[in-house]
Specification:
Rossmann fold, five-stranded parallel sheet, about 210 residues, Methyltransferase, Methionine Synthase (B12-binding Domains), Chain A, domain 1
């Protein structure tokens, strides 16, 4: 049996060797989807500890990047066991970090989990202006657009992006989900998004509900 608290502690303390060993042992037992989802949530709780230590200046930007890489590796290891295992064709998502924001750790985690759940994800990258989202939505005709941002300024960029989608006549039937430390219910209403989250697993759950 996996000790989730030990995994949370290992990631929170940036103990890569211990975290990977725990995950390898877990995977060797051919876990169920439900068990794998609990491990993903434990990994994210470990990242929350990293975030708290970063905010308290115990960790630095390099530590944050290292933690993000560790979490992305963990998600990659768990991919075969999470989401709709082996299922494709769940839907299309256009994803990107909005203009003025260069953070992509949360976006990349969401992308990995969405792909594991069978979504076709078109990742625009970071610092993306509204017109790039509009262009990509016209091109691939997704059911969902995901807007990511860590900084407070991302809120205005997200609003401009949603407004641009509406002005281009693309908003009807298109779901918009926003994510990142800057978002909350109030921001979601202001931006005009359909849902918000700071948890990648919860975000994928919203997307799966939307596409049925």
């Amino acid at each position: 049996m996996i000790d989730l608290n030990e995994l949370i502690k290992a990631i929170g303390e940036l103990d890569e060797n211990t975290a990977i060993k725990i995950l390898e042992d877990f995977i060797s037992g051919n876990p169920t989807q439900e068990e794998a989802q609990r491990v993903v949530e434990a990994c994210q709780r470990g990242m929350e500890i990293v975030g708290e230590k970063f905010e308290s200046k115990e960790y630095f930007v390099g530590d944050l990047i290292f933690a993000g890489d560790l979490l992305a590796r963990a998600i990659e290891m768990l991919k075969p066991y999470i989401g709709t295992k082996g299922k494709k064709g769940s839907g299309k998502i256009v994803l990107g970090t909005v203009q003025g924001d260069l953070h992509d750790i949360g976006k990349n985690i969401f992308k990995s989990m969405a792909e594991a759940a069978g979504f076709e994800v078109h990742d625009l990258g970071i610092d993306q202006p509204p017109e790039n989202f509009v262009s990509k939505v016209k091109e691939v005709k997704p059911q969902i657009v995901g807007l990511s941002g860590l900084l407070t300024l991302a809120i205005e960029s997200m609003k401009k992006t949603v407004d641009a989608l509406s002005e281009a006549g693309l908003r009807d039937g298109l779901k918009v989900i926003i994510g990142g430390n800057a978002v909350n219910g109030e921001a979601c209403a202001y931006i005009g998004a359909d849902a918000w989250t700071i948890n990648a697993a919860e975000g994928v759950k919203f997307c799966r509900e939307w596409v049925g």
